[in-house]
Structure formats: C-alpha cells, structure tokens
Amino acid sequence: MPPDDRSAVPAIHVEGLTKRFDAHKALDAISFDVPAGSTVALLGGNGAGKTTTISILLGLLLPSDGIVRVLGHDMLTERYRVLPRMNFSSPYVDLPHRLTVRENLTVYGHLYGLTGLKQRIGRMAEELDLVSILSRPSGNLSAGQKTRVALAKALLNDPELLLLDEPTASLDPDTADWVRGFLERYRARTGATILLASHNMAEVERLCDRVLMMKGGRIVDRGTPADLLARYGRGNLEDVFLDIARDRRRAAAVP
Ligand SMILES: Nc1ncnc2c1ncn2[C@@H]1O[C@H](COP(=O)(O)OP(=O)(O)OP(=O)(O)O)[C@@H](O)[C@H]1O
Q: Which listed residue, of 45, 142, 199, 254, carries a Cα 20 to 30 Å from 52's Cα?
C-alpha cells in the first residue's frame, strides 16, 4: 500500500461489536472508527463497557459478534500480525512484583522480540525518569512510579497504536500533568494513534480529538469535544458527561 493510503485505513474499525457475559450484554452492537494518528477517548460511567472494548481490541477477550479490525487486520484471524505493532497500559494490570523494573522491561522486550533491548530500556528510562529505580523491585514502587514503568513497558516496541485504560488514575495532579504532557509529546513525535479510557474530563479535553460516550454497553454520543460542548450547551465535558449519565440530554438541548 502506498504510504499516502495508510492514513485512509482507520487504526481501529469496529462494527456491530457485541460481548455477552452469560445473559448480560456488556457491549451491544457498538460501531466506531479511530482514524490513524488521532487520539480518541472512550468515556462512560462505571460498567459502561470501556474496559471490555479495550480488552477485545487487545485480543484478550473474544467478541460474541461483530467485526474488529486493528491497523487494517481482522483481530480474530490476524491477531499475530497486529500485536507487535500495538501496546497498552492499564493500572489494573500489575507487573510481576519481585522482578526489578529493568528485569520486567527486559522480559516484555523479549516477548516482543525486540533488538537492541539494552539501549531501548536505557532510552525509555531517561525519557520516563526511571534511571534511579531500574534496580528496584517493581512491587515496591509508588503509584506514580508504577505508572511511569507501565508507560515504558507500553512504549518499548514503539507502538503505532496505544490503548490506555485510565492512564492517570490515582496519580497526584503534578504527576498526572506530566504523564499527559509526555503522551502529547509522544504523539507529536511518532504520529501514533491513541485510544484512551478515562474518567478525567480535563484530560480528555486536553488530549483527545474525538470522544465516544458509552452507556450500558452502547455508544450514546460521539464527536469532537467542541461538538459535544456545543450540542449540550455546556462549557466543559464534565457537565456533558453528567447530562448523558443522568439522561438530561433533551433538557440541556432545549434552550
Ligand atoms: N468477566 C466478566 N464477567 C461478567 N461480567 C463482566 C465481566 N467483565 C465485565 N463484565 C460486566 O460488563 C459490563 C462492562 O464492564 P467494563 O469493565 O467494560 O466497564 P467499564 O466501562 O470499563 O467500567 P469502569 O469505569 O468501572 O472500569 C459491566 O456490567 C461488568 O460487570
């Protein structure tokens, strides 16, 4: 494919995606595209289906129905082609506690079959301020340090697509701001696509080109942050989120 055509293929294409856990529909025929090079937020209250969506995109969960294409490949049949080109970070997936930070990054680097691993880890440690903790057991780190290590793990293979589940959960405002700045710089430098689930609306307004609003396993609204603010007549996404969560859309739309 000529390089110019690459951006025409969405980094993620999801169509009619359904996930059932026994009788419960965690995802109910959702469809969306994430354009290559964009940063898109998955928003929604607890239990809306954000983590389930991300898990399916990673190939950790199988869909009950629907189409999932990542970087132009069908995740059901061609997962092995896509996984080396993507990565993820989640506060809910802990790295093995007894291994040092360096050992953890080395294990993950080997899983991705990366060459020049020592140099890569050195570079990531510089960028993410991990040099002084490389020899510490991963289990003893603070939440902020763990987040930076998880980001290093997520960026080790220079992913074209990064899936982030609540990238700044449980971080103090200063560390959270640093992580957001780092993600902005990473995207500007690499042109990577980022899909992130977040409960932090200020983070979404700062980082994201587009927003997918989820509720009860469905996408109930979508658009740029500016579109959503205009549609709901609100000054910030926090209020839009509350309108959607509390079914106040009609009331808010009526002048
Ligand atoms: N393994 C599972 N077995 C049964 N039900 C599940 C499983 N995983 C998720 N669910 C259910 O699917 C629904 C969606 O859950 P999911 O974790 O995707 O939501 P979420 O939007 O990420 O929520 P949160 O913001 O709380 O992390 C919830 O009702 C949840 O209880």
A: 142
Asked if residue 119 and residue 78 are part of one domain, the reply reads: yes
Q: Left (φ > 0), alpha (ψ -120 to 50) or beta: where does 84 sit?
A: alpha
Residue 217 Cα, ligand 1 centroid: separation in angstroms? 9
Domain check: are 210 and 240 in the same one? Answer: no
Q: Are residues 177 and 211 in the same domain?
A: yes
Q: What is the CATH number of the domain that holds 22?
A: 3.40.50.300
Q: What is the pTM of this model?
A: 0.90
Instruction: List the beta strands (DSSP E) in 45-81.
Output: 65-70, 73-74
ipTM of the complex: 0.96
Domains identified in the chain, total number: 2
Q: Where are the beta strands (DSSP E) in 71-153?
A: 73-74, 86-89
In this structure, the answer to whether residues 203 and 234 fall within a common structural domain is no
What distance in angstroms lies between residue 46's CA and the mean position of ligand 1's atoms? Answer: 8
List residues near ligand 1 (CB under 6 A). 21, 24, 26, 44, 46-52
Q: Which numbered atom of ligand 1 lies nearest the CA of 214?
A: 21
Strands of the 161-165 sheet, one edge to the other: 86-89, 161-165, 193-197, 39-44, 210-215, 218-223
Rounded CA separation 204/169 (Å)? 13
pLDDT digits over 34-74, tens only? 999 999 999 998 899 999 999 999 998 999 999 999 999 99
Tokens at 132, concatenated:
């002084």
151/246 same-domain check: no
Range of the domain at 241: 226-255
